[in-house]
Amino acid sequence: MHSNTFKHAITIALVTAAMLVGGCNSEKQNNPGHVTMNETKHSEAVFAAGCFWGVEETFRQVKGVVDTDVGFIGGTVPNPSYKQVCRTDTGHAEAVRVIFDSSVVSYDRLLEVFWACHDPTTLNRQGPDVGSQYRSAIFFVDAEQRKSAETSRDAMRKSGKFSNDIVTEVTQAGEFYLAEEYHQRYLEKRGAPACNTGVNPE
User: Fold this and answer.
1) Could you read off the pLDDT of 25-35 as tens digits, one per residue?
2) Regarding the domain delimited by 37-190, which CATH topology (the fold level of the hierarchy) does it fall under?
């Protein structure tokens, strides 16, 4: 009798252990590949340099960039639509959020790409695109990025590369609102090598 009771207790313990292990495995399976920023060397940067289609594609070509999103930042209207931002009354800029592996590419290198991919001397304009949503801006996420951005901007001003003054804003990143899905990786989806800024998708 005592032997049967002992066997029964062991059986219950084994089943309970299996359920606990199964529960942990189930949670991992429901969240494949999920990692926190602290578990990796991934960092975030946000840049505005005109039409976000072309800017996103430019950063996606940089080794060490692991993901990108296009969206809106720096305005006053929560969760704005593309049409609202195009009316220029929300205060947002079209921007690209860059997730990068800091062990592969540095923030300073991303700043170099930023300066090279647009004209930072035209106020609220890039090519044929005119409006405050197309302004040149670096949105820093921490004090270290702010220092790097300001140092980089000062160096560009002294470099003599541009005949006109640089008007790029360096400002703290606020809420970043994702643009509509069809804007994400817009050029990649269409196999376009560059941004045709004269075409409005809507």
Assistant:
1) 323 233 333 33
2) Peptide Methionine Sulfoxide Reductase; Chain A (3.30.1060)
Are residues 117 and 55 in contact, defined by beta-carbon separation less than 8 angstroms?
yes
77-115 pLDDT, tens digit each: 999 999 999 998 899 999 999 999 999 999 999 999 999
Question: Minimal CA–CA distance to 136: which of 152, 156, 114?
Answer: 114
Judging by DSSP bridges, how do beta strands 129-130 and 136-140 pair with one another?
unpaired
Distance CA 148, CA 108 (A): 7
Can 51 be counted among the known catalytic residues? yes
Catalytic residue selected from 51, 86, 117, 195:
51
Q: How far apart are CA 91 and CA 132, in angstroms?
A: 7
Which residues lie below 8 Å from residue 114, measured CB to CB, with a gap of 6+?
A: 47, 49, 138
Partners of 71 in beta bridges: 95, 178
Provide the strand spans (E) within 9-145: 42-49, 65-73, 93-101, 125-126, 129-130, 136-140
- Are the CB atoms for 44 and 97 separated by under 8 Å? yes
190 pLDDT exceeds 70? yes
**Domains of the chain by residue range:** 1-34, 37-190
CA torsion sign for 62, 36, 173, 84 is positive
